[in-house]
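Chapter review: from sequence to fold.
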Amino acid sequence: MKSKYFENVLALLGALVIIVGVSAAASSALAGDTGTLEIYQVAQK
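The token string follows.
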């Protein structure tokens, strides 16, 4: 019984690590797009 509980905890921790990683990647990608957009708008003036 304890091994099943341990496996469930490991699965939840793995899912949380993946969610945090994907969120960080998406955040940095959006930040990169924002900077590119600002540079493009300045270049158009």
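Two observations follow directly from the output. The chain has a mean pLDDT of 79. The first helix runs from residue 2 to 44.
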